[in-house]
Amino acid sequence: MEWTRSETLALAAPGCNICLGLGLRMGHGDSTNPCNCVLRAIFRQCFEHFRDCISQEKFVSKVTLDPLPGKDRRGAWGRKDEEFAADFCLVSKRTLTEFEYRIFRCHFLLGADWKLCCQKLQLERGTFFHAVYRLEQKLGRVFRELEPYGLFPITDYFHGPIRSVTSSLPAVVPIQPHNPPQFCTRRIA
Ligand SMILES: [Zn+2]
User: pLDDT tens across 6-51, in order?
Assistant: First the structure.
């Protein structure tokens, strides 16, 4: 996907020294990359929504009928808030290293502050905050670039257009060309 200024401008930190509040950094050639302040903002918005999803009372949860892509127009019933919370956890676990995920789980999922995390995980304060910044940037990018349904923009996750889904498994190529079955014509004595 291509990052544009119209998207990053609203997310960038106004006082950022790197992007000067524009949200884009120049990459190799003419390519542009999102600034780390934008990626962290994306992560924080998704995290806030995750907290909203898991803290609401169970009776508030809504069931929605979502159309399926393709010819099948029957749709599927789902609970979007629970799906978002599950995607937030599963995508994070899949993306982060084991070390980063331990910090993510302790700080973001279990709610421990930096002092408790450092004590529990035997980390220096600087190491902890560097790792938190790094994992926020990593997850912010993945939440935005995930195909076909990114977690961000959050409104698109809940009310966005239906996209076709393809299998992530590689196509199976037969080792030998397919031959029609040979029928035995010899009569058994
Ligand atoms: Zn920036």
Answer: 889 999 999 999 999 999 988 777 778 999 999 999 999 999 999 9
Q: Which two tokens stand for residue 58?
A: 């169970």
Q: Torsions phi, psi of 47, nearest 5? A: -65, -40
Question: Quick one: which of 170, 154, 136, 171 has its CA closest to 35?
Answer: 136
What's the predicted TM-score (pTM) here?
0.78
Structure tokens belonging to residue 20: 């000067």
Distance 15 CA to ligand 1 centre (A): 8
Give domain limits for the chain.
5-159
Would you state the pLDDT for residue 167? 59
CA of 2 to the centre of ligand 1 (A): 17
Closest residue by Cα to residue 150 from 109, 96, 95, 76 = 95
Using the CB atoms, write b or e for 89-110: b if 16+ within 10 Å: bebbeebbeeebbbbbbbbbee
Ligand 1: centre distance to CA 70 (Å)? 40
